[in-house]
User: Which sequence fits this backbone?
């Protein structure tokens, strides 16, 4: 078959596999019209693929002794060819029986026919009908590879040749042994014993690498453990030789190689069709070690289409082994040895450990070692298998290991793109406009106009996707009259700054603005508007349109339409809304309350004012976060207001974001919330709060790297926001990247010593990592700044408890119980306090009460590190499922 013909067959074959079995026949007939030979070749491949079954898709565990683990258990149906071969001779060996078969070959047990000595062997013979050029090359390749290898942990090649009718075969030593995982479980090997056995496997792989051979298909079904406890590595069938002198006849069609490898153990570079190196085997060894120690797979690939499998392998981060081991779902072994025991219980019994002791064993060194093997980029893995073994040895001997906290592969590629600072030339900061003659007539006077109009312009300009607009929170502190716009622009890292002045006199208003290029240190546009105050909406229209035109000469139709949306034509409603934004941007509890009053006034004046409804939704979402009101109450109000806002204006990113967050904390509706968060991000990827809320949801669902990317992006958009800084540290914390979380939080409390939430969350983190003295100090600072409110007192009590200061913790708990008589206390926070006191029953009681009253803090249940001791309990599993995490 010519290469061109092979490619034609392969393309139709691969496309047919993407269809359901019922659709394949008509597709092949149509694709091969007029070429019966082509059709026959494709249909033969499909038939063989179907017959191969789990040979490609999943490893097979055969609990009887056999010589090649890549094949299913012996077929119980009569095999014509097998019957014909029984008793036949190949060289000095006589066929006895079939051991197993796969899509491309059959393995037989054979014995020496002469009387020289008694010896059993395994003979691998290509299957009739599969003797294509490609398959024959594969078999010749494997025979050639095995001939170069001689290692006690590699199944040895004894002989090879071609049958009388031209079928290649090779004769290997027959291994009477048990599959790797089965052996470890039956023998009840603990973690250390499994590591010693794993290092023997590594020894075989390291030897192969020194012989310039990469296995490329390391998986448990290719490893048997002999009766003496020695593991044997089998099947170099798709190995790639690195020695060019031996590799002259190796196949290379990428699509075929993709089918031959086992997806569960394939590396990202294999999936992408990139060059294979020894690092590929190190990745597969990482998967093997992950499964060997945890009883779980690092990825959920079951029931996924091939393109989804590729995406997961290349883009999804594996859960830390110390975390996944506490999850009862997606077990490798789903059947327990008896009805009295669940598969989850058997996992720990077979390792001689309790859930908590196994979690502690894996946390730290073994987490880091395994996840280093699983880095997406080959250069991030161990430099060699020997280095991997050395780190395992160091761990077993109690010495420091070289592997450090996991920063996954894809992160560095994706994070670099997703969190790359926006080009200065494509970003703008709108500074609060300065009032030249402010009139003080109420609590805001005319001051609201400067920040309010800037905030309105920021909202309007954010509709232009071609450039990033810094959020109001990033510019609010630059309201002083003497600030230099060029210095501000450099500090904020933007290419342009919009600066201006407002002069108001009774019913007249004059607005003077200029757009300054930071790079060229000169204005690129200026405008002066002198109108009746009631025309302020027209002024806002003109400024936003002309600034946009100056930055992006050719706006799209959609951008023009979004720029033209005012939100309201009622000047009094608009003024009330601007006053609300003025109060909101103080970011204080008092300011929030005043903002709410202004938003309600705006709606009273214009019942169709979507932005005002969004402001109300934001208010209720935030006071739920800070436990001012019960989440069930606050999130219900937020959901109602946000739903109304979306109904009024489906193009408002802020409304979709607020609705997404309220759906999470009120209904635990992950799917609908995700849709609204994605919609918000699509409408305005530069809306920092929306980016963060979406990042929070991703983190809550265990999609840590995606969540961190969003948190980084939010901080990039508002680099001076204490809230966004602590949110990045919060995301690192839940991803178990504690060192990075500590670094972010330490920077935050040093830069913002009066930011109470920063101290509160820093103490939470320090408590978990065991830095109790500093944790207590930070918790006490939070209480001093916040006041003795339940939100922070529960954190202080939990910190005292974790540090062993039970008396102090009980005193705080008594105080909280008194406060609970007239203030809301989150049962989720109480559960953490009881857990740190060592009272798991009370902790469960509080978690169940939290669910009963819809405490929105439960959205963190899936990933909170301090709850790990509870994860193996059926009550915790049921709670996770009730919250929708099982899906």
Assistant:
């Amino acid at each position: 078959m010519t290469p061109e013909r092979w490619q034609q067959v392969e393309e139709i074959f691969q496309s047919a596999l993407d269809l359901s079995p019922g659709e394949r026949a008509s597709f092949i007939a149509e694709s091969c019209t007029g070429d019966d030979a082509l059709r026959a070749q494709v249909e033969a491949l499909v038939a063989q693929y179907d017959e191969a079954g789990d040979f490609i898709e999943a490893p097979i565990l055969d609990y009887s002794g056999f010589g090649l683990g890549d094949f299913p258990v012996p077929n119980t149906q009569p095999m014509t060819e097998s019957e014909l071969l029984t008793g036949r001779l190949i060289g000095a060996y006589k066929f006895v029986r079939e051991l197993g078969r796969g899509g491309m070959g059959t393995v037989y047990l054979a014995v020496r026919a002469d009387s020289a000595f008694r010896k059993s062997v395994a003979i691998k013979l290509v299957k009739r009908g599969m003797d294509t050029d490609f398959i024959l090359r594969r078999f010749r390749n494997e025979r050639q590879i095995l001939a170069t290898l001689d290692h006690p942990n590699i199944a040895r090649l004894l002989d090879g040749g071609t049958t009388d009718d031209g079928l290649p075969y090779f004769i290997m030593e027959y291994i009477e042994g048990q599959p790797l995982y089965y052996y470890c479980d039956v023998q009840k090997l603990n973690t250390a014993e499994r590591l010693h056995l794993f290092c023997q496997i590594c020894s075989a792989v390291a030897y192969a690498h020194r012989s310039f051979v990469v296995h490329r298909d390391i998986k448990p079904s290719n490893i048997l453990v002999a009766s003496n406890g020695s593991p044997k590595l089998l099947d170099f069938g798709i190995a790639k030789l690195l020695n060019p002198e031996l590799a002259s006849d190796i196949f290379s069609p990428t699509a075929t190689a993709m089918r031959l490898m086992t997806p569960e153990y394939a590396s990202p570079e294999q999936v992408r069709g990139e060059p294979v190196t020894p690092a590929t085997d190190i990745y597969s060894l990482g998967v093997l070690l992950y499964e060997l120690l945890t009883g779980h797979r690092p990825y959920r690939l079951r029931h996924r289409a091939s393109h989804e499998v590729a995406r997961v392998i290349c883009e999804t981060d594996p859960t830390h082994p110390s975390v996944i081991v506490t999850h009862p779902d997606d077990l490798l072994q789903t059947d327990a040895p008896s009805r009295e025991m669940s598969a989850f219980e058997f996992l720990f019994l077979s390792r001689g450990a309790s859930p908590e002791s196994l979690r502690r064993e894996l946390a730290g060194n073994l987490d880091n070692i395994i996840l280093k093997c699983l880095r997406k980029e080959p250069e991030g893995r161990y430099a060699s298998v020997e280095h991997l073994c050395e780190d395992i040895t160091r761990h077993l001997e109690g010495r420091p290991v070289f592997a450090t906290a996991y920063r996954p592969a894809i992160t560095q590629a994706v994070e670099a793109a997703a969190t790359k600072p926006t080009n200065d030339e494509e970003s703008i900061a709108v500074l609060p406009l300065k009032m030249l003659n402010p009139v003080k007539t109420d609590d805001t006077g005319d001051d609201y106009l400067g920040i309010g109009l800037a905030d309105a312009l920021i909202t309007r300009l954010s509709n232009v996707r071609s450039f990033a607009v810094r959020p109001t929170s990033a510019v609010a502190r630059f309201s002083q009259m003497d600030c230099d716009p060029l210095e501000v622009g450099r500090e904020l890292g933007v290419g342009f700054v919009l600066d201006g002045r407002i002069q108001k006199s009774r019913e007249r208003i004059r607005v003077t603005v200029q757009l300054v290029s930071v790079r060229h240190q000169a204005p690129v546009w200026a405008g002066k508007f002198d109108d009746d105050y009631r025309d302020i909406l027209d002024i806002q229209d003109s400024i936003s349109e002309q600034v946009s035109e100056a930055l992006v000469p050719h706006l799209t139709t959609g951008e023009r339409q979004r720029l033209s949306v005012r939100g309201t034509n009622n000047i009094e409603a608009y003024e009330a809304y601007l006053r609300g934004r003025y109060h909101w941007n103080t970011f204080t509890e008092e300011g929030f309350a005043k903002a709410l009053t202004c938003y309600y006034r705006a709606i009273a004046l214009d019942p169709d004012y979507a932005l005002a409804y969004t402001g109300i939704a934001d208010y209720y979402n935030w006071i739920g976060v800070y436990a001012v009101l019960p989440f069930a109450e606050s999130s219900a109000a937020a959901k109602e207001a946000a739903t109304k806002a979306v109904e009024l204006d489906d193009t408002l990113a802020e409304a979709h974001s607020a609705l997404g967050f309220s759906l999470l904390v009120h209904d635990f509706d992950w799917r609908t919330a995700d849709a609204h968060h994605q919609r918000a991000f699509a409408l305005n990827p530069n809306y920092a709060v929306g980016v963060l809320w979406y990042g929070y949801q991703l983190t809550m669902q265990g999609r840590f790297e995606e969540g961190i990317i969003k948190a980084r992006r939010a901080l990039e958009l508002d680099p001076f926001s204490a809230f966004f800084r602590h949110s990045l540290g919060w995301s690192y914390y839940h991803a178990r990247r504690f060192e990075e979380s500590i670094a972010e939080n330490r920077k935050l409390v040093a830069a913002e010593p009066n930011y109470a939430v920063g101290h509160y969350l820093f103490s939470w983190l320090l408590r978990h990592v065991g830095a109790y003295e500093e944790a207590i100090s930070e918790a006490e600072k939070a209480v001093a700044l916040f006041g003795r409110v339940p939100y922070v007192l529960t954190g202080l009590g939990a910190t005292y408890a974790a540090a062993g200061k039970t008396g102090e913790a009980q005193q705080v708990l008594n105080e909280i119980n008194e406060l609970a008589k007239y203030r809301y206390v989150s049962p989720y926070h109480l559960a953490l306090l009881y857990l740190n006191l060592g009272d798991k029953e009370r902790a469960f009681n509080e978690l169940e009460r939290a669910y009963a009253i819809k405490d929105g803090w439960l959205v963190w249940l899936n990933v909170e590190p301090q709850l790990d001791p509870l994860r193996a309990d059926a009550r915790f599993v049921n709670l996770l499922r009730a919250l929708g995490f099982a899906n």
Observations:
- The longest strand covers residues 522-532.
- The chain has 40 helices and 17 strands.
- Residues 52-80, 243-259, 407-422 have pLDDT under 50 and may be disordered.
